[in-house]
Amino acid sequence: MSLFKWVFCAGFACCLFMLLYGCSVEPLYRQKVQRGIQVGSQMGPQVGSQPGGTALHGKHAGVVSPDLAAKFATVVVEEPSDRFGQMVRNRLLFLMYGNGSKPSVPVYQLSLHTSVATHTSVQVEIYEDPDGMGRSSVGTVISRASYMLRDMNNVVVAQGKGAISASFDRFRQEYATVQAEENAQKRVAEELAEQIFMLLSKDLAKL
Predict the structure, then answer these.
(1) pTM for this one?
(2) Which pLDDT belongs to residue 170?
(3) Domain spans in the chain, listed from the N-terminal domain onward
(4) Which residues, other chains included, contact 207 with Cβ-Cβ below 8 Å and sequence gap of 6+?
């Protein structure tokens, strides 16, 4: 009988220990989950944030704070002198004003200087030409831009520069190659404008 009591007491003590240990695990687990949610909520608004209230949505779209948007609305962009500069300016105007019009009473004036060039790669592909010569099969469009922001007294308040490049395929058909090069120029013009837009966002946030 004493042996039976001993076994019964030992089993009861073991079950009680396991029950208490199991109860102690649950609060720790819940605490970890709550802490994880808290950290996530703290990090969430910071993802993609930039100084001055500028953030990125998607790949390149610019989203600015109301104060910074009001500053962009006071900037007028000078007319470019070439087609590529016009493409950069058009994209930049869209980022700055959205669907709105240019400022009626400007506070700042922005001048852009752009350049673009196409470079061909080494001969990496041999075609069945009568002369047996190869030709370049890849081209690269390289673009650069510098900007200067002045107030209406012609005093420089900010300046900067950027560069973007993009590759394209060169085909045997001349028309296809020209079209591919034009598409590459359009891509670099848009990305160059977005790069300038982000630099301007930081500059205007300091003014």
Answers:
(1) 0.64
(2) 83
(3) 2-45, 53-206
(4) 71, 157, 158
Other beta carbons within 10 angstroms of residue 145's beta carbon come to 25
84 touches 185 (CB < 8 A):
yes
The sign one gets for the Cα dihedral 13, 16, 20, 26 is positive
Angle between helices 83-97 and 174-206 (to 10 degrees): 40
Position 138 pLDDT exceeds 90: no
Spatial CB neighbours of 194, under 8 Å, sequence gap ≥ 6: 60, 62, 91, 95
List all residues 6 or more positions away from 25 whose beta carbon is below 8 Å from its beta carbon: none
Give me the residues paired with residue 143 across strands. Answer: 116, 164
CATH number of 53-206: 3.30.160.150
Write the CA distances from 37 to 25, 48, 57, 95, 203, integer angstroms: 19, 19, 23, 34, 35
Contacts (Cβ under 8 Å, ≥6 apart) of 132: 126
